[in-house]
Amino acid sequence: MGILSSKDTAKANDMATDFHFPSSKNALIIFTRNPELGKCKTRLAAKIGNENALEVYKFLLEHTATISKEIKADRYVFYSETIEKEDLWNASLFKKKLQHGNNLGARMHNAFSELLAMGYNKVMIIGSDLLDLNADLIQEAFFQLEANDVVIGPALDGGYYLLAMKTLHHKVFQNKSWGTDTVLKDTLHDLQASKLHLLKELNDIDTFEDMQHYQQLKKFYNI
Q1: Is pLDDT above 80 for 126?
Q2: 24-220 has which CATH code?
Q3: Which one-letter DSSP state was computed for residue 24?
Q4: How do 160-165 and 122-126 pair as beta strands?
Q5: Distances (CA, A) of 96 to 5, 16, 128
Q6: pLDDT digits (tens, 9 = 90+) for 211-221
Q7: How far apart are CA 130 and CA 32, in angstroms?
Q8: Are 171 and 128 in contact (CB under 8 A)?
Q9: Domain map (residue ranges) of the chain
Q10: CA–CA dist 113, 152 (Å, integer)
Q11: CB 41 within 8 A of CB 80
Q12: What is the pTM of this model?
C-alpha cells in the first residue's frame, strides 16, 4: 500500500471526478475500505487482533484484485476514504473513484447511478472479502443479465456478495439495515416485480468463525 502525503492525496482525490470513457459494455465495481490498522474487519479484530485482521483484509483484497483482472469489463475501485495512486489496484487495469453517501446503500446507489449514466449496459458490484468468489462466477452473473433484470449472489450471513443490474432499481438501496441478516430478504422483497436470477450462496469473511475453515488464512492467527 503506497503512503501518500497530504499533497499527493489531494491530487489523487482529483481523480475521483474524472470521466472515464467506457471501453466495454460491462462495468465491474469493487468497494474497498482503505486498509488502515484498527479500521477494517473490526469484528474479526476482536478475536485475532488489529494487526492480524488488517493482514487478512489485505489478503482478501489481493484475491479480489486477482480474480477481477480476468473479467472482461471496465473495472472500477471505489475507495472509502482516499484514492491511493500506488497500491495493489493497478491504475492501468482499475479505474479509481471515491465512494459518496451517508450509508452503504447510498454509496452503492451513487456508484451504480454514475456508471449507468456513463452508458454501460450492465453494472455489477462485488464484495472484497470472499475467498470463494471466482472469475467464472462473475462472468456467469454478467451472462445471466442477458435474460434477467437483476442478478444477486446471496451470502451465508443474510446479505449478498454480488449485485448486478441493467437499469437502476432505487428501492434496492433504500430502507435497509445494512450489515444485518435481513438485507437479502428485504432486497428480494423489493424485486418481486423484477426478473431475478440468484447465484449460488457463498461465505464472506467478517468474523473468526467465517475464516476458520480456510487453510490459507491460518497463518494470520495463532489462538
Answers
A1: yes
A2: 3.90.550.10
A3: S
A4: antiparallel
A5: 18, 7, 15
A6: 998 999 999 88
A7: 13
A8: no
A9: 24-220
A10: 18
A11: no
A12: 0.89
